[in-house]
Amino acid sequence: MRKPLVTVKNFSFATCALLFVCTLTAGYIARFSNHSPSNYIASHARLFRRGEYSGFGFINTVEIPSWNSVRIRPLYSLEDYAMERKKGLGPRASRRWGARMDRERRHNFGNVAGNEDIGGCNSTYKFVESYFDEENDGYHWPPEQELIKSGNLNNHLRNKTGGPYGSYKSLLGEWKVDDGAISIIFDRIQSDPFAPPSNIRVRVAYDINGFPTDLLAPRIRNIATCDYIIRKLSKILRGRDESNALRGVKRKTFEIAPPTQYVLERKSLLLNSKYIEARLFVHLPGFGRRVDGNYAARMFCEELPKIVKECLFYSGLDSQKLYRHVYCIEDQDHLRRSLKDLGLVAFVTNGAILPRATGTVQVPLDSKIAKSFVSPDSLQVTIPLLNRAPITGMGIKSGVTVIVGGGYHGKSTLLEALQVGIYNKVPGDGREFVVTSPNAVKVRAEDGRSVTSIDISTFIGTLPNKKDSTNFTSANASGSTSQAAAIMEAIEMGADVLLLDEDISASNFMFRDNLMDDLVSKDKEPITTFLMLTRGFYEQLGISTILVSGSCGAYMDPATCVIQMDQYTPHDRTEQAKELCLKHGLNLQETCNLILGQKEMVQTRLINSRIISSESFKREQGKIKQHGTSTIDYGKETINIGLIDQLVDKGQVCAIANILFHLEHEFMSSKADWKSRTLRELLETLYSKWHQSREFTDAVNEHNCLDDVNGPKPFPAGDCAMPRIFEVAAVLNRMPALKVSRLVKTPIEPQQNHPL
């Protein structure tokens, strides 16, 4: 039978009353004397620990269980005293008690010499209440020095059971578990159980984790290795929560930013020659707003080390699966880099599965239903790879490629596969070896989008009301002007391939037939259609086009390649298309040359680039906050990004939000050189810095490149993924607050800063 907590021998009611009075008296004397109340409480605790209490000439024997069972411990600091007092209180009483204690401290202890250790006469002393402030829940990154905790994390957590939830703040810093093999760094502690989860980093030294050096560098192998570990870690953590749910435990514990089908550089895991580090989110357990220290101790000292040994130790991984994953990603990257030397802008391997399961997810359609891709013989090329046999598929050469076919035969499906060919995909995606030039940009019409000081005169001449098209601004652009702006913005940033789909383009921007030309004279129509410029863009500017067209046959004349999709199978129809153009007398070359001769940008190979004003980043109120891949709140304004088709991961949007914060900080710091740079130069400065930090340092770099732009967070949260420079610029171009100080002529050149 379990012993009672306290058994009293010859303990009368009067004795209890005297004991209570003595305790109150001791506390009163301590409060208004030069002695610390902690010492009085500690002395009473020692008496209780020995099992006896003396008062007024008699001794009563008290039998109590072991020290750890009743959790009586000496309180040597004001923090310990405050935590002990608050344990038995609810949240409201705890707050009232804390305020009363603070007032009494200022009144009674403030001018008493000898109380420096508890705050008296010491203006820099940090009282325990300050540990509960949300503003002080982390330290700045990179930290000047790590806050190393020397205590036992298991005991520390168990001793906090029943205390106020805010006492978790004392976890901030680095703790060792599993005999010092694993470090847990608490970067931010949530303020209550219903707040966003806390941020931790779990680190294992390189001489312990056992990862081979060939997985650390080159960079693409490092990214692929991290991606494999992230996916395994995410699967284990998700399965753990699902298992808890099946047992009726509605409690989340550890989380990691979930990966998508795309292999991107992510902040959630870092591997270098010093350590491997996973950046997790953790829901600290509690009973209401009180600490559940026992469960927290199991989480961090029992369950987390097991997960770490499965994922962050090389011995816990399937080495064959890991290397297959790494080799596949490395081959995709090599294939993409080979396109330019082969005169290609895209490649689709034979056997690829292009259709997706649904329109809202990126997992492949069941291979039993989907039709595998087979290249036409005339377009077939074979390309050698690094880790496997040469690969064969359809090569799309630089130039003007038009994809035609009936409805629901796979035209847009092929284009959608090409638009994400800029990214590496996870093995088994079906599109692993569907690759596109890293400078390919999808452009479309966006009715109502914001456009700021962009030169669209190449497409649109004099506007009504004498509005200047060389410096066009609109808070509510039309379909044609928004698509013209999108193309010019892409060229400004260095795009060398434009991807267009007729279904989501402005029809008057793409084509005008002869009947409309006769009805509306050319002097009344300011728009020069894309049809008239697409061949000139390639021949004089080196900008290729891949266009899906289901209704306008006129694009067959400037096309250098025509591909017909028939039941998801491609056929080369270039020769037949040219014969039909000749048969119908369609020859636009002379007209196109005449129009191109009037376009200054085409003739000079110079574009009006924009120098961004510091007024763009004067965010007076509000936060920078993302909402999935649809919008970003920038202060009181909303940036609509839902139609940027090549933004494929929430982590990319998070990184872009942090870049906005970084640019805001740089502009507000009054750096003169930042205020004289074009938009492209601003972003290239940032990407060049990341690129240089990776050169020859893949194995030793102690932080992720994205750690340079943590945004408002003072620590490296694992919530970001690397975006391309084009998508960052696309978000900036959609800022309602964007302002341009002036335009300058710059040469049209392809972009060299690639995140992958």
TrEMBL record:
Residues 319-591 form the ATPase of the ABC class C-terminal domain. Residues 623-740 form the MRB1590-like C-terminal domain. It comes from the Eukaryota. It holds the Pfam family MRB1590_C. Residues 152-314 form the ATPase of the ABC class N-terminal domain. Signal peptide: none annotated. Transmembrane segments: none annotated. This is Bifunctional ABC transporter.
